Amino acid sequence: MTETMVARDQRPRERRLLGPFVVAGSLALASGVLYLRDPHVDASWGRCPSIALFGLACPFCGGLRAMNDLTNLRIVDAFFSNPLLVSAVPLVLAWWISVVRDRWSGSTRPWMFPVQRGVVAPVLIAVCVAFSLYRNLPIGAAFYP
Questions:
Q1: If DSSP codes are grouped into helix, strand and coil, which group holds residue 111?
Q2: Residue 46 to residues 52, 61, 127, 142: CA-CA distances in angstroms?
Q3: What radius of gyration, in Å, describes the C-alpha atoms of the chain?
Q4: Residue 75 near residue 90 (C-beta atoms within 8 A)
Q5: Are 45 and 128 in contact (CB under 8 A)?
Q6: How many CA atoms lie within 13 A of 142 on its CB side?
Q7: pLDDT for res 139
Q8: Which of 13, 62, 136, 140 sees the fewest Cβ atoms within 10 Å?
Q9: Whole-angstrom Cα distance, residue 38 to residue 42?
Q10: Burial class (CB in 10 A: 0-12, 13-18, 19+), 127
Q11: Which residues fall within 8 angstroms of residue 10, CB to CB, at 6 or more apart?
C-alpha cells in the first residue's frame, strides 16, 4: 500500500492566520464606522454612481444600509435594503470559518465547497445580474434603494 502525501502549509500558525484575521478586523472596523455614521441619512456616504448615471440600482445598492441594519440587529430591515448581501453573509461566514480552520491545521485544501474550478465567478456574476434585473423591474420594487 502506498501512503498518500497530504501537503501541509509549513509557515508558523500565527503567520497562516494573519490574513483571515486582518480581513475580520477590517470588516469589524468598517461595521463600526457604519454603526456610527448612518447611511440611511440621504447622501451621508455620497450618491450611488449607478443610480446617478443610469437611474438603475446595481446589486450592491443598499449594501451600506443593510450592513448598518445588521450591526443594529435589524435583520428584516437589512434584508429589504439588500437581500443579496444579507443572504450572502452566512455563506461568507461559513467560508471564513473554513479558511480559519484550514489555516489553523495547516491544511492546503483549496476550497470548502466541491465545485469545479472556474465555476464560482461566472455563477456569482450571473446571480448579481439576475438580482439587478429583478430589483429594477416593478416586481422587485420592494428591494429598490
A1: coil
A2: 10, 12, 26, 22
A3: 19
A4: no
A5: no
A6: 7
A7: 82
A8: 13
A9: 9
A10: middle
A11: 106
pLDDT digits (tens, 9 = 90+) for 77-123: 999 889 999 999 998 898 888 888 888 888 766 655 556 667 778 88
Where does the chain have alpha helices with state H? 13-36, 49-54, 63-71, 75-81, 83-105, 120-136
Does the CA dihedral 49-127-82-99 come out positive or negative? negative
What backbone phi and psi angles, to 5 degrees, belong to 8? -125, 145
Query: What DSSP line would sit under 41-77, residue for residue?
Result: STTBTB--HHHHHHS---TTTTHHHHHHHHHTT-HHH
Query: In the block, which residue shows the cell 508558523?
Result: 12
CB under 8 Å, gap of 24 or more: what pairs does 3-6 form?
Answer: 6/107
- Beta bridge partners of residue 25, listed in sequence order: none
Cα 38 to Cα 120: distance, rounded to the nearest angstrom = 33
How many residues can be counted in the chain?
145
Distance CA 16, CA 13 (A): 5
Q: What is the pTM of this model?
A: 0.75
